[in-house]
Each structure stands twice: as C-alpha cells, then as structure tokens.
Amino acid sequence: MTRLETWATPGVPDVVIQDELGLFHFVELKHTGGRAIELSPHQVTWLDLHKNGSAWILVRQSKAKQTDTVRVYHASKAIDARMEGTDCPPDLFVEAPYDWDEIMGLICPIRSHINGESINLTEEIRHGV
C-alpha cells in the first residue's frame, strides 16, 4: 500500500494498493464531521473516468456523541457521493471499532477465480502454499 500525493495529475486518489496478483486498487480518503463528502471536481472526474476499475472512496465520519463510522463507495458513485454526501447509499457501512478485513475485502479482494472455483489466496499465503 502506498500513499500518493501528487500535483502532476490532479484528482489521483490518496492510496494505491497492489495485490498479490499484481492488480491495482485506488482509494480516495475523506473525513467529515457532517454529511458533506468534499470531493474536488478533479477527484470526481478521475473517479468517474476509472469507474470500471477498482477505485474507491473511503469516508470516515466523526460526530460528537456518536459512534464513528466508515462508508466505502465505489468510484461509480463519485458524483452521487459528492452531491448527496453521506445520504448516498454506500457499498459498505461499518461502525467503530472497524472491521478492516471486511473493508479491505471489498476494496482489495484477495481471491482468484480459477476454473470457476474461488480460492482464498489469503489463506494460501498464510500457510505458505
């Protein structure tokens, strides 16, 4: 996982992840104390142009006297997330304490589909297969 900060190409998400299969996944990180998800026009454009790939928006919402939450949106929802804020239905909603395996399982699934069979590469890597 690599944190990106670039001015060369406006709108490129904050994090790029390369999985065990060599596939790339992009994540735009946002934080809000209210309902607005403040995506810039460049960010919305980049996400919309890459909506057929693995590109995501991860929004942490912190409100006083409420449990913190994380919402994950696929890039195909970038325009709606910008316009509707947290009222836009997320692909995943979790409350603190966060289940990072569930979050990463959506953003960067470590599964290979070979001959129609699903093989969990996470278990294979843990056991040295």
Q: In what order do the strands lie side by side in the largest sheet?
A: 1-2-3-4-5-6
How many helices? 4
Tell how many strands the DSSP assignment holds: 8
The ordered string of helix (H) and strand (E) elements is EEEHEEHEHEEH
- As residue ranges, the low-confidence spans are 112-119, 121-129
Rg from alpha-carbon coordinates: 16 Å
As a percent range, the share of strand residues is 25-35%
Structural class: alpha+beta
Please, what is the average pLDDT? 85
Amino- and carboxy-terminal Cα gap: 23 Å
Form type: globular
Query: What share of the residues lie within helices?
Result: 10-25%
Number of domains: 1
Give the biggest beta sheet: 6 strands, mixed
Name its key features.
single chain, 129 residues, alpha+beta, two-stranded antiparallel ribbon, 31% strand
Characterise the protein shown here.
By secondary structure, the chain is of the alpha+beta class. It has one domain (about 1-125). It has helices at about 40-50, 80-85, 100-105, 120-125, and strands at about 1-5, 15-20, 25-30, 55-60, 70-75, 90-95, 110-115, 115-120. The strands form 2 sheets. The protein has a 6-stranded mixed β-sheet with strand order 1-2-3-4-5-6, with helices on one face. It starts with a strand and ends with a helix.
Layout of helices and strands, plus pairs?
Elements (H helix, E strand, L loop, with lengths): L1 E2 L11 E4 L5 E9 L8 H9 L5 E7 L7 E6 L3 H7 L7 E4 L4 H8 L3 E4 L2 E4 H6 L3
Quick summary of this structure?
This protein is of the alpha+beta class. 23% of the residues lie in helices and 31% in strands. It has helices at residues 41-49, 78-84, 100-107, 121-126; strands spanning 2-3, 15-18, 24-32, 55-61, 69-74, 92-95, 111-114, 117-120.
